[in-house]
């Protein structure tokens, strides 16, 4: 097998494409021949030693991937050799093969292509858990999605629309806004032309007839959080999803008081561990939604696995719309 090996987590340049012995699965594991792996923001942080999970060295990055089971370890009953699966295991994806915990593998129904499957679990599980579970989104409510052209943002638009909500998508270019419209957003705000804080707040006010959004989905953080929260509707729910812009913001706690609003944390990874039955039911519903055409990952482009460093550079340029996927 071949894999991108991180022996020294000083950044992307230190990764090396190496030949390694193909491992055999232990109890509870499966050997997956990887067909596709998506690039996520944590995949950048983990090779810079900036992610909250620090795997023992050396390790193979790549948190999310899809492929075919080629061998199963003892005790594995729900997966068989030759079965197509998707997996979000945190590491191992940027390779031709990996050992995956069988419990983390999602069996794929027929007609679920590996490129879509490799880009599916993280963004749709995060967005469904955020909007449907944590925000209790209701039909007819208005959702403001920040960073709406990214992976979780595009998933949030589709899930909010599937739930019967009205969606305002905020993104940084006209191209990205057009993409958001094409996948269901009712209105868009280009926050480069509607600068923070005042022009952005005025644009949100105009888009909601002065009421403000009922739910704000924020994977961006930084300078957006306070002006967005100041725009929220009475009894609104502000979803803290992530901090793609870098800085973790501080909010004045009088804002939730004045708006009768809730600040809601979204940590899908821990939800999946603590409430596995609820998470399993959610993933089953999402697979059905995919089959029904309600959700489909937006793929910015596919690139050969050997071009991982170029893929990282493209992600760093902030030009990605949806997800980047590496293929073998």
From TrEMBL:
Residue ranges annotated for the Enoyl reductase (ER) domain, each copy included: 11-326
GO MF term list: oxidoreductase activity; zinc ion binding
SUPFAM superfamilies: GroES-like, NAD(P)-binding Rossmann-fold domains
Xref: Gene3D superfamilies: Medium-chain alcohol dehydrogenases, catalytic domain (3.90.180.10), NAD(P)-binding Rossmann-like Domain (3.40.50.720)
UniProt name for this protein: Zeta-crystallin
Species assigned in the record: Ramlibacter tataouinensis (strain ATCC BAA-407 / DSM 14655 / LMG 21543 / TTB310)
């Amino acid at each position: 097998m071949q894999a991108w090996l991180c022996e020294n987590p000083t950044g992307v340049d230190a990764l090396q494409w190496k030949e390694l012995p193909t491992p055999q699965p232990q109890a509870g594991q499966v050997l997956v021949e990887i067909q596709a792996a998506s690039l996520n923001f944590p995949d950048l942080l983990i090779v810079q030693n900036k992610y909250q999970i620090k795997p023992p060295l050396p390790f193979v990055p790549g948190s999310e991937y899809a492929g075919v089971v080629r061998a199963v370890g003892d005790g594995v009953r729900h997966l068989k050799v030759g079965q197509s699966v998707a997996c979000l295991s945190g590491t191992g994806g940027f390779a031709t093969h990996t050992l995956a915990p069988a419990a983390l593998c999602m069996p794929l129904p027929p007609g679920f292509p590996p490129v879509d499957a490799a880009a599916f679990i993280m963004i749709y599980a995060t967005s469904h858990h955020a909007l449907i579970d944590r925000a209790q989104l209701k039909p007819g409510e208005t959702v403001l999605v920040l960073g709406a052209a990214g992976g979780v943002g595009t998933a949030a638009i589709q899930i909010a629309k599937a739930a019967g909500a009205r969606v305002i998508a905020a993104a940084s270019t006209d191209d990205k806004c057009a993409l958001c419209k094409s996948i269901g957003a009712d209105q868009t705000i280009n926050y480069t032309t509607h600068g923070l804080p005042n022009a952005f707040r005025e644009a949100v006010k105009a888009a909601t007839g002065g009421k403000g959004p009922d739910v704000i989905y924020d994977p961006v953080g930084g300078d957006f959080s306070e002006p967005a929260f100041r725009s929220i509707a009475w009894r609104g729910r502000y979803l803290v999803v992530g901090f793609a812009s870098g800085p973790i913001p501080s909010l004045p706690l009088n804002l939730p008081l004045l708006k009768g609003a809730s600040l809601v944390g979204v940590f899908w990874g821990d939800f999946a561990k603590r409430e596995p039955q609820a998470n399993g039911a959610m993933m089953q519903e999402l697979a059905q939604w995919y089959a029904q055409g309600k959700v489909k990952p937006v793929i910015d482009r596919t690139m050969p696995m050997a071009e991982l460093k170029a893929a990282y550079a493209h992600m760093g340029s902030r030009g990605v719309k949806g997800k980047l996927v590496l293929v073998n």
